[in-house]
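[stage:ingest] chain + small molecule (adenosine-5'-triphosphate)
[stage:ingest] validated
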Amino acid sequence: NDEQFKNVISHAKEYGFVFQSSEIYDGLSAVYDYGQLGAELKNNIKTYWWKAMVQMHENIVGIDSAIFMHPKIWKASGHVDGFNDPMIDNKDSKKRYRADQLLEDKIARYEKDGKTDKAAKLQADMDEALKAENLPMLKTLIEAHEIACPVSGTKNWTDVRQFNLMFSTQFGAMAEGSEEVYLRPETAQGIFVNFLNVQKSGRMKIPFGIAQIGKAFRNEVIARQFIMRMREFEQMEMQFFVRPGEDEKWFAYWKEARLKWHKALGTPAEKYRFHDHVKLAHYANAATDIEFEFPFGFKEVEGIHSRTDFDLSQHQEFSGKKMQYFDNDLNEEGKPYGNYIPYVIETSIGLDRMFLLTMINAFEEEDLSTEEKQDSRTLLRLHPCLAPVKVAIFPLTKKDGLPEKAREIMNSLKLDFNCIYEEKDAIGKRYRRQDAIGTPFCLTIDHQTLEDDTVTIRHRDTMEQQRIEIKHLQELIESKTSW
Ligand code: ATP
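[stage:predict] done
[stage:export] C-alpha cells:
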C-alpha cells in the first residue's frame, strides 16, 4: 500500500497534476501547486460539487466571500481561543508532533497487530483527554504506551502545549496602526456573516443553504501524506439553515445525500464509511465524518456537522446585529413560527483530499500480458466527467494532409471538450500516454478518414476501437462526458 501511494505521488508529479510548491528552492512544507492537468481535474471536481449542491437544489445558492475578514469574527467563532492542536516536542530530535496523532498512530499499530482491546482502550482514553482538554493526560498516555519519536527513536518528550492553527498577518500599509488579521482557517464563517445579506437579497425561505468553494489556511503542526494535510488548501462547504428542532432530520438527510454524491462517481461502496464523533467540537450537537480508505487507512474526507445556532448566536452577540429570521409559515398549532435564530447543518469537504482520493481510486497498473509477451499499462480510470482531457486527437502520420484533417476535427470539438493534439510517436505509445492521464477517448485520423469522413475512436477502459463517422463524434463524446 505504501508502494501504491508512492506511485500515485510520483505519477502526479510526472504528468503535471501536482508539484511541490517552490520546488526549485527546495520546497515549502505542506504547500503544493497544481499543474496543467491537476488544475483541470480540480476544476472538474469543483464543478461536480457545485452542480450537485447549488444547481440541483433550488434552495441552495453559492457565494464567494473574501479570505480576509474582520478579526472579531474569529473571536466570535471561537477560533482565537479554541482552534488549537495539542503539540509535543521530542527533546532529542527537536521534532514537533501532534500529541493526538502520535496516539492515533499507536492505535493503528495496535489494530494492525490484532491488539484490538488495547486499541479501543487507548482510543477511549485519548477521546476523554481531548474532550477535557487534559494536556498532562495526553502526555501520560504517550509515556504509558511507550511511544518513541519516529526520528530519534527516544521517548524524551516535552509537556504537551496548545498550538493555535491560525495564520495572521498585518492589515494596512503602516506598521503602526495596522491591525492583525487572520487568514481564514475555514470558509464557513464567510457564509455565517453573510447569512442575512443572502437571505434578504435572495428572498430565501428556511430551510435553505449557502455554499462556497475557497481557500483556507491552517498552520498544521505537522504536514504529511502529500496533499492530505496542507497549510494552504481548499474547502467546499455548505451551511444549511433550518428551524430549531428540525436539525436532527436535516443532519440525517445530508449525511446520506453526501455519501450518495461520493458513490455516484463509481467509487466502490466498501471504500467509504461513516465515523460518528463521540468528542464533539464546541459548536456541534452531532457530527460525523465520511471516511475513505486511503492506502494509509480510513481517513476523513468530509465532515457533516450539526452546528446548532452557535455561530449565528455568537455573531449576534459580538456584532450587536440581530441574526434572526422571521418565519411566517404556520406550525402545528396554526401559528407562525415567528422569529428565531436558525440552526445549521454543515457539509464540509476538502477539495484537495477529494483530489487525492480521486487519483488514488483511479490509479491502476494493469497487467496486459499474454502468453506471447509481457505487457502492462498505467492508467487513470477517472470518471469521464472528471477527466482533465476528454479527447486526444492523433493524425496517423505527419503527412498526406492528415494533420490538417486532424486539426479540423479538433477545432470542431474544442469549444465543448478539452482536447489535446499529438502527432509524435507511434500510435500505441500515444494511447498509453493518454491512459496515464485518464483521457477517455482517443481519435485516430488515417487515410481512410480522407475518403469517408470516419475516424477510429479508442476507449480508455476497454481499449476497444471502433470506426465512427465524424458527424457522430460530438454526440458520442457528449453522452459519456456530460454531467
Ligand atoms: P482533521 O481532523 O483531518 O485535521 P478537521 O476535522 O480539522 O480535519 P474540518 O475542520 O472538519 O477538518 O474541515 C473540513 C474538511 O476540510 C476536512 O474533512 C478535510 O477534507 C479538509 N481539511 C481540513 N484540514 C485540512 C488540511 N490541513 N489540508 C487539507 N484538507 C484539510
